[in-house]
Structures are given as structure tokens and as C-alpha cells.
Amino acid sequence: MPASEPGPTVRAGTRERSTRQFNAIIEELEKSPDFRSAQDIHATMRAGGNTVGLATVYRALQSLVDSGQADVLKTDSGESAYRSCSQTHHHHLVCRWCGRAVEIQGPAVERWADAMAEKHGYTEVSHTLELFGTCADCARQRA
């Protein structure tokens, strides 16, 4: 996206955010299909000459998660990792070695969640499901 074009505007709580730094963070997040830590995104941006602060990166990522434009998951070490995502409900299959992620559908999970909610009288139920494994590339490299 050229710098002269207005970037996407994300609704974060009750205020709208559309700054040069915020748009640069969105662009950086969209460069990779993999989950990345805020520190990794920040370091890459700084290495590219962007003077964005780490706190700004964290705030922007949280705004993107809140608006549904990014997914967040906790890694095995407890660190939050982020990636740009589709706007439809989905789950992830994540490589525990390289972080590559694939969006997957889980119709059986959706049916089960609906059935459990109905059985126990719950409404407005949401859920998160992340599967971790080793992608084919990493499996070949590790063999």
C-alpha cells in the first residue's frame, strides 16, 4: 500500500485508530502467514528503519485481535504470537518448530460445541481450538 493512501481503520473500543505506525504494523503482520511474537514484529520493523515502539506494537496487535483482524495464540512457552487472519470462524494447525500456521475448519468441533451448549443450557458460546504438530518441511529437515 503506498504511503500516500489512507490505510485501514480499525475500531478499537470506542476510538478509531489509523496512524502511520498502526498501518505499518498491519503491513508487517500481513507479510507472513505464520504466527509471530510482538518482539519479532517489532525487531523486523526496527531493522527496516521504522521507529515504532514495542508498546505501540503490543497495543496495535491487541486492537487487531479485538477487531477480529488478527489471531493470537499462546506458544508452548506461554508467549503470545499473532497473525493476520480471515474474518470467518476457524481454527489453526501450527508447526511447533517453524511456526507455520494453516487455518482449518472443524465442523465436528462446531457440532460438538453446539451440542454441549444446548445440553447444559448455555447460549452465546465461543471456543478456541489450536492444533500443534510438525509441518512436512520441518519433518523432512528433522529426519
Key terms:
Dna Ligase, domain 1; disordered N terminus; 2 domains; 143 residues; 3-stranded mixed β-sheet; globular; Arc Repressor Mutant, subunit A
How would you describe what is shown here?
39% of the residues lie in helices and 22% in strands. The chain has 143 residues and is an alpha+beta fold. Helix 1 (20-30) packs across helix 3 (54-67) and helix 2 (38-47) packs across helix 3. It starts with 9 loop residues before the first strand and ends with a helix. The strands form three sheets. The chain has a three-stranded antiparallel β-sheet. A three-stranded mixed β-sheet has the order 7-6-8, with no helix packed on it.
How many domains is the backbone divided into? 2
Tell me the β content. Answer: 15-25%
Report the CATH architecture of the largest domain: Orthogonal Bundle
Judged by helices, strands and strand pairing, the structural class is alpha+beta
